[in-house]
């Protein structure tokens, strides 16, 4: 695998191989990767979890991490992303983790540069490593995906997490349902009532309301959204006993999820963050393995 830009590119077998490798790394520890490789993390949108867990994985693998800050780069002078990547290729970078606000930014890069591209999130498009860490967390809990009922609730139309997980979970045999206001469904068929889905869901995956993508559009106050579409304490009482709560973060407390539920016994939110390091280490290993 030379690049990882979308969950659509991965077969079921490739997904399971990455999950199994992450499981091994979690059990035995992340060891230094043979050879000397340089990576850089190009984040043109804010990030805490993705950026920091990639960097943790890179350092545990013994990779050289070349710092990059978009606010101090030539992007501010009008340099294109392609020219930035070609510059880093020229100075010897082997792989780039890129987060960019433009959907499908990677289409102009793959095949035109020898640098390996790992998509850390593109606009409202894809977020493959988030999907993989979500899958890893679900697999740890249930062992398999076949027949699981997964509910994804929130700002579906603007969510690269929803798109990435929709592709992967369906491929692996899970039943995926979307819950959101009709205006936020995008191309997905959705329901708008918790009553018909909360009691049968094995996984309740909540998505952040992306206020930055709703400029000038105020459909809800925080309170009204939580009351209609958030996971409230009362709704959580209707969940199956072995069901789990997930959220890619950052979470808006009291909006998509009640504050008291974030660290409840059924929550796997911080477990997802932990698992992100192992998944990203597994992806980096697989990408760099092809560069020997």
What does this structure look like?
The protein has a five-stranded parallel sheet, with helices on one face. A four-stranded parallel sheet has the order 2-1-3-4. The chain has helices spanning 12-28, 49-60, 81-90, 128-142, 160-171, 222-229, 233-236, 269-289; strands at residues 38-43, 64-66, 95-100, 116-122, 149-153, 175-179, 190-191, 203-206, 244-246. The relative contact order is 0.17. The chain folds into two domains: 7-125 and 273-289, Aspartate/ornithine carbamoyltransferase (Rossmann fold, 3-Layer(aba) Sandwich), CATH 3.40.50.1370; 128-271, Aspartate/ornithine carbamoyltransferase (Rossmann fold, 3-Layer(aba) Sandwich). Helix 2 (49-60) packs across helix 8. Strand 5, helix 5 (160-171) and strand 6 form a beta-alpha-beta unit. The protein starts with 11 loop residues before the first helix and ends with a helix. By secondary structure, it is an alpha/beta fold. The longest helix has 21 residues, at 269-289. It is built from eight helices and nine strands.
